[in-house]
Specification:
There is one protein chain. This protein starts with 5 loop residues before the first helix and ends with a helix. It is built from 5 helices and no strands. The chain has one domain (9-111). The protein has helices at 6-15, 20-43, 51-68, 78-93, 97-111. It is an all-alpha fold.
Length: 112
């Protein structure tokens, strides 16, 4: 699937994360990103940075394969997927992502 902008990509990304459990696994993984960055800063143990992609992608991909039942958007759109993950993270922790999923589903239903 081709996208010309992040704005076009975002609805696709949202629909790839329609289940709450998928979004929560992503949020846990992204939280580890921040935790590991902080730990690295305080301890100076730079090797901790190597754990970031392993943990974050591991949890996210687990949720796609075993909960959502789809292929991670990262495989086809790595940069926009990373941006989308942080976008989704902040909407999730602020309690707004569920409404965003419903908005996008309604938008797609109206196009059909």
């Amino acid at each position: 699937m081709e996208f010309r902008s992040y704005r076009e990509f975002w609805p696709f990304y949202v629909l790839q994360h329609s289940k709450l459990a998928t979004r929560l696994w992503h949020a846990v993984g992204t939280s580890f990103v921040f935790l590991l960055l902080i730990l690295t800063g305080f301890t100076g143990k730079w090797w901790l940075l190597l754990l970031i992609p392993v943990i974050a992608y591991g949890l996210a991909w687990f949720s796609h394969f075993f909960i959502e039942g789809n292929k991670p958007a990262t495989f086809g759109h790595p940069v926009w997927s990373l941006r989308g993950d942080f976008h989704m993270y902040f909407l999730t922790i602020s309690g707004q992502m569920g409404a965003e999923v419903e908005r996008v589903k309604k938008l797609y239903a109206e196009k059909k």
